[in-house]
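Per reviewer request, we include the raw input and output of the structure prediction for the construct analysed in the revised manuscript.
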Amino acid sequence: MDGAMNVFRRKYLQPLQKFAKESRAFATKCTKPTEREYFQLLSATGTGFAMVGFFGFFIRLIFIPIVRILCH
């Protein structure tokens, strides 16, 4: 049974422990974004949302007449 426990530890527990250790190290190296970085990220995200919305609106605007012509 001891051999099975070593296999279990080596196969499952050690990778989880390594992942947890590396995650903690990564989290301690991370820093909060500055106000400038935050607003830059916010504006980029907002611009992306707006672009996707406009593309969807114009595609819908183009296809409404096409669908009406094809369905009638």
